[in-house]
């Protein structure tokens, strides 16, 4: 029987380690972490029986910037998570994302001076909201176009400092109409 010399053993051990590494990749090492996982969890906290009051949630979590999203297939949600990450790393904001359907909107006009809200909103169909933004859209007056004639007391976002981003496709007739409507609710 042939004898194994040191070189053979080294080669065998290397082969064994290589095989082990190959089969454990993604389980014990090179596990991909979702960089947005924590903000995603923040955004879904409402489902776990948490408060629907956004200001309460922000205070509980020590946040000063909320990024609401209205998303159907995840693009706006993903964009909201990226904004949250950038806002935190570049500008030191204490950010959280929020699924629009998990919160109430009555106190949006009570946001204190030191807090800011973002809305990242996708448009569908005939300029309609995503499923998770339907209630928000109705709260904002839905299709009512007479907002410019209303007093600021009647405008849900009149006292809110906010930034609005729209996601749309300019081949549609109602291009980006969700974000246009939300912006009009202030004026
Ligand atoms: C069936 C369908 C209808 C759409 N309707 C509109 C529209 O009326 N206006 C618009 O600006 N964009 C429209 N879009 C484009 C979406 O708003 C855009 O793809 C957006 O990035 C989707 O965001 P989401 O993945 O967060 O849902 C439509 C897309 C689809 C698939």
From TrEMBL:
Matches recorded under PROSITE patterns: FLAVODOXIN_LIKE
MF (Gene Ontology): flavin adenine dinucleotide binding; FMN binding; NADPH-hemoprotein reductase activity
Keyword Transmembrane helix in annotation: yes
Pfam families: Flavodoxin_1 (PF00258)
Annotated GO CC locations: cytosol
Regions crossing the membrane: 6-23
Keyword Transmembrane helix: yes
Residues of the Flavodoxin-like domain: 65-187
Protein name: Flavodoxin-like domain-containing protein
Naturally occurring in which organism (per UniProt): Friedmanniomyces endolithicus
């Amino acid at each position: 029987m042939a004898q194994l010399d040191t070189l053979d053993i080294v080669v065998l051990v290397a082969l064994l380690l290589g095989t082990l590494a190959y089969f454990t990749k993604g389980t014990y090492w090179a596990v991909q972490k979702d960089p947005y996982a924590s903000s995603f969890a923040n955004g879904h906290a409402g489902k776990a029986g948490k408060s629907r009051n956004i200001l309460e949630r922000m205070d509980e979590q020590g946040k000063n910037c909320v990024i609401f999203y209205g998303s159907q297939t995840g693009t706006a949600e993903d964009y909201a998570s990226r904004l949250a990450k950038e806002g935190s790393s570049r500008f030191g904001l204490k950010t959280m994302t929020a699924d629009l359907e998990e919160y109430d909107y009555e106190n949006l006009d009570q946001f204190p001076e030191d807090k800011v809200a973002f809305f990242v909103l996708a448009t569908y169909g005939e300029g309609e909201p995503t499923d998770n933004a339907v209630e928000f859209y109705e709260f904002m007056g839905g299709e009512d176009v007479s907002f410019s004639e209303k007093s600021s007391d009647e405008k849900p976002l009149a006292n809110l400092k906010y930034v609005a981003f729209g996601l749309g496709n300019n081949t549609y007739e109602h291009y980006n109409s969700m974000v246009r409507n939300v912006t009009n609710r202030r004026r």
